[in-house]
Every structure is written in structure tokens, then in C-alpha cells.
Amino acid sequence: MRRRSLLLAAVPAGLVTLAGCGDDKSDSSKTGASPSATASSAPPPKIVDGPLPAVTAGTKFGEKPTVAKGPGDPSKNLAVKTLITGSGRTVAENDFIQANYLGQIWSTAKVFDNSYDRKRPLVIQLAQGSIIDGWRYGLAGKKTGSRVQIAVPPTWGYGTEGNEQAGIKGTDTLVFVIDLIDSFNSKSSVKGTPVPQDDAALPKVGTNTDGQVPKVTVPKADPPKKLVSEYVLEGDGPELKSDQTVLCQFQGLVWDGGKTFQRTYGSGRLSQFSLEQMQQAVKGLAQGLTGKKVGSRVLIVVPPDLGYGDNPPSGGVIKKGSTLVFTVDILAAM
User: Fold this and answer.
1) How far is the C-alpha of 224 from the C-alpha of 302, rounded, in Å?
2) C-beta of residue 79 within 8 angstroms of C-beta of residue 165
3) SS3 at position 136
4) Which residues contact 220 (CB under 8 A, 6 or more apart)?
5) Which of 18, 127, 128, 164 has the fewest CB atoms found within 10 Å of its own CB?
6) Alpha carbons within 13 A on the beta-carbon side of 42
């Protein structure tokens, strides 16, 4: 089984998931280390600039760092230092971030988790109950492209219970080096290159990149019998693998009448779901996204046998035998 980040919590309640689909909760809970289980009710921490241990190797952005043992006793406050100042978007609370990181214990320099070795950056929301409070307070206001080092006392980490799986005691201060790669919020959309939409038998999708819902025009014709997955805007990121989790903007419509059954655009939320779990819900959506590039907008037409078939969600516009139309902005993946 692929090892998941110790920091990854269950998908927060603010996320939208597709009708009839589970969120990523069951998958992420396999780590046994959800920060939401020890969310702090303490007031916001005082943020100080040290002490912090030295980064002795891997000092460039994107390199796996080597960090020395903590010098003496750690601060009782949250220590935060920007090691490399980026020039990208300023991160705000409740944004999603994409980041590489290394975490170790102050007193021993024992590394308990890092994303560099997995070669898959973490994608997570800076929201209470989604991530440890040390990250939530320490990263807000930083710019993407920055490398940030923080020392997190138990109050804003895993609390007095610690994290047995990771070997973290309830008295341990934690040290993190975090490379902020990108950030996303409910107004984000992809910026890929437009691809000609020449097939009159397929829906036409808007190419706006302002975070607003792209217009979808469904032709007054019979839907295709097979799965369709086409770029509308083609990005230049890595291709999605079938075992990844996707952060996206999306909308879902039924072919017959073009009625929308769910969307994130304009809702103030994003969607995050596991492609493996999506295989159990809307198989065609998972198959249509697999192999597509991060940073792309994709049109996916799902025939009934790869959608809900004869078992549609109750009370909605999806009926037995409905063909589904999705547009998905693939913002990030992990």
C-alpha cells in the first residue's frame, strides 16, 4: 500500500464531492495520524523568529533538506522563519497549498515524515481541523515559492497525546522545513492552452480562466456511446496516475437538457477526491481524468454504463440511463 503523509487529515467538511461519491476520508485515515484529531482550542500563538536549528544541506528550494538537532530548549511560542522568500501568490487561511516538506523532532533530529522521498507534494487545506495549527498559523501570509522553517510546540502540533505511529511524544516540539509550491482557492482556474473544439457531436466548453463557471453547450443530438475525454485547455503539468488524489474545480451536467447537477465554480469551494475511490462511484470520470495533465481543463462525457447506470442518486436530475457531462479544471494532484 502506498504510504500517505502523516500530516494529511480527513477531507474537511468544506469540500464538495460528487453526488453519490465518498470523500477521501477513509483513505487518509489509514495513516493513523490525522491532525484534526488533536486540533487545538488554544488562542492563536505568539509567533517568534527563533530559536530554530540550522539547515545543513539541501538548502535550495525543492531540495530535500538536512536539519540539525534543535539548539538547546525550544521556544514555547511558534517559531517561524522564511529561509527563501518567494514572489508568488500570498497564502491565506482556508487556501489549499501544494508543498514539499520534511518534519523532525527537535530534541533528537529524528525525521518522522517527508514528502521529498515520495516525490509527490502534499496538497492540503490550511483550515482548522484539516492541518495542525502550527502550519495554519505559520504559513498564512507567506508567498508561494518560499521555503519556510517552523518549530511547533505540542499545543499547536499533536497536543499532549502526541502521535504514537510517528514516534512523537506529547512533549515533543516539531521542526518543519516547507517548500510552498503553489496555492489555490475557490476562485482558481487552470491557465492551459486552448485546444480546438472541432467535433460538432460533442459539447462546447468555455475557455475562460477567471474562476467563473465555463459555459457548456450540449448539442441537440444523441450522446456518444463510448467514453469521451478531451482537453479544452491543455496544461503542462504531470499526467495523473490512477492512484492519485485530485484537487479541482468541476461541474457535472446531464446530456439530456444540459441541466447541472453539481458544481464547485462559484460555490466558494473546491473538490478533492481519490481517483481510486471514484472508480467505485463514477468509473468514467476516474478513467477520463487518468492520464490527463495537471493544469488542464478536460471535457468528459460518461455513458450510463460508466456512470450511474440504473442506480442514479435519488431526487436529482440524473435519471436511469443518463449520459453525464463533466468539465474538470485539474488544479493539483498528490
Assistant:
1) 9
2) no
3) helix
4) none
5) 164
6) 20
Pairing of strands 193-194, 228-234: antiparallel
Q: Which of 297, 70, 83, 74 is nearest to 194 (CA)?
A: 297
**From start to end of 106-171, where are the E strands?**
111-114, 122-125, 147-152
Spatial distance between the Cα atoms of 11 and 31, rounded to a whole number of angstroms: 13
Closest C-alpha to 269, from 198, 200, 177, 331 = 331
| CA pair distance 299, 297, nearest whole angstrom | 7
What DSSP string runs through 170-200? Answer: TT--EEEEEEEEEEE-TT-----EE-----T
- Tens of each residue's pLDDT in the chain, 334 residues: 333 333 433 233 233 334 333 333 333 333 333 333 344 566 899 999 999 999 999 999 999 999 999 999 999 999 999 999 999 999 999 999 999 999 999 999 999 999 999 999 999 999 998 999 999 999 999 999 999 999 999 999 999 999 999 999 999 999 999 999 999 999 999 999 999 999 999 999 999 999 999 999 999 999 999 999 999 999 999 999 999 999 999 999 999 999 999 999 988 899 999 999 999 999 999 999 999 999 999 999 999 999 999 999 988 999 999 999 999 999 999 9
DSSP 52-85: ---EEE--STTSPPEEPPP-SSPPSSEEEEEEE-
Task: Yes or no: say if 184 and 332 are a contact pair by the CB < 8 Å rule.
Answer: yes
Instruction: State if pTM tops 0.70.
Output: yes
d(CA 213, CA 115) in angstroms, rounded, equals 33
Comparing C-alpha atoms, which of 265, 268, 299 is closest to residue 284? 299
DSSP 3-state of 265: coil
- Burial string for 218-238 (b: 16+ CB within 10 Å, else e) reads beeeebeeebbbbbbbbbebe
Cβ 326 vs Cβ 29: under 8 Å: no
